[in-house]
Amino acid sequence: MEDIIMSDQKPVILTCAQPTGEMTLGNYIGAVKNWATMQDDNQCYFGIVDMHAITVRRTPAELRKATLSFLAQYLACGLDPEKSALFVQSHVIGHTELAWVLGCMTPLGELQRMTQFKEKASKLGFQVSEDEGSNNDLKFTHESAKPQASVNSGLLYYPVLMAADILLYNADSVPVGEDQRQHLELARDLAERFNNAYSETFMVPDPYIPKVGARVMSLQDPTRKMSKSDENQNGVLYILESPDSLRKKIKSAVTDSGTEIRVADDKPGISNLLTISSALQDIPVQELEERYVGSSYATLKEDVADVVIEALRPVRERYEEIISDKAGLEKILKDGMERAQARAFKVLNKVYRKVGFFERVR
Ligand code: TRP
To answer: Which ligand 1 atom is at minimum distance from the Cα of 159?
Structure first.
């Protein structure tokens, strides 16, 4: 008999990203570079979540372009379609189907209380506040500032779809950033809730925490994470950025008082530059600190610029090659879809049986 939880020789790792904008150096160092190293010892599924992307209105042509560009950036960073499944969420039957089933087990209040939902709603001019005395009733008050805005229900449902992305592959672990922790927690709760309501079906996925937690901060405000949505784009480096532009931004990075080059809480700017250099060269920070005894901040910046430019040069060159081969990209997506779908169908049919649907014939 088939195992209840599909066991594979290798642990299954799944992670996804929205096709929005370009990848930052922070995404590369903090995430994608690590994913690339996990591909031999794990069975990896890398999804591009275009369905999550339309929770915000997108221009169709732009979305398609971003999806292909994201795939090409993944490939340029070393994700390998021979080893891993690279797929687009909207291609695989099961994500929305499972999301529906899970949604029917999720109280509305749980979604309304999600931190990211509240943040997004408040950006649209809605305040979500908990009503005293009741857990589930949340008050929505609409400020008149943005009369056109509305909170679409996809935004509310977003974490359920994300839980489905994860559970559909019965993933053992899920590499996510700190900002996605609460969403992953919901996926774990839903896995347990389903298992208790029906019977053992889902693995309860663990967050994947990388050994070296290199967190790249904004060059302009090194107390904040480097983020593509940052208003001050001078603090954000992109993996496809030109060498000139990279150098210019690094040279104008804010530094700290004093002259010593070392990692310290009161030296967030210098710490960040050292972290970047250390991660890209695989050299321990201590070694760099020794190397820079007596050097100036200006020298450090020149060196970091060289390191970043050289590390990203091959990435950009590979990207240019890959993005110009549209047929090649489409073939990779088709292969990825087939591999992802094969696994997804097994889990989906198990869920269908458990909840009382008939199995779906492929
Ligand atoms: N919400 C995630 C983000 O914005 C993207 C995402 C969607 C995801 N589904 C996922 C990440 C499943 C990990 C696993 O970063």
So the answer is: 1
Pocket of ligand 1 (CB under 6 A): 14-18, 49, 52, 162, 165-166, 174, 176, 180, 183
- For the purposes of burial, counting CB atoms within 10 Å of the CB of 20, is it exposed (0-12), middle (13-18) or buried (19 or more)? middle
- DSSP at 59: -
pLDDT at 7: 53
- Judge whether residue 147 has pLDDT over 60: no
pTM for this model (two decimals): 0.90
Ligand 1 nearest atom to the CA of residue 175, by list position: 13
233-320 CATH, one of 1.20.1050.10, 1.10.240.10, 1.20.1250.20, 1.10.1040.50 = 1.10.240.10
Which residues make Cβ contacts (< 8 Å) with residue 253, sequence separation at least 6? 219, 220, 222, 235, 269, 272, 273, 301
| Domain definitions of the chain by residue range | 12-213+326-355, 233-320
> Average pLDDT, whole number, for the chain?
91
Instruction: Tell me, yes or no, if the two domains 12-213+326-355 and 233-320 fold the same way.
Output: no
Per-residue pLDDT of 33-45, as tens digits, reads 999 999 999 999 9
Average pLDDT of the segment spanning 260-273: 96
Residue 136: per-residue pLDDT: 47
337-34-244-305 Cα dihedral, nearest 10 degrees: 180
Average pLDDT over residues 99-118: 96
Q: Which residues are catalytic?
A: 120, 225, 228
| CATH code that applies to domain 12-213+326-355 | 3.40.50.620
For 266-281, what is the mean pLDDT? 96
User: CA–CA separation, 227 vs 93, rounded Å?
Assistant: 31
Cα–Cα distance measured from residue 343 to residue 356, given in angstroms and rounded to the nearest whole number: 21
Q: What is the Cα–Cα distance from 247 to 253, expressed in whole angstroms?
A: 10
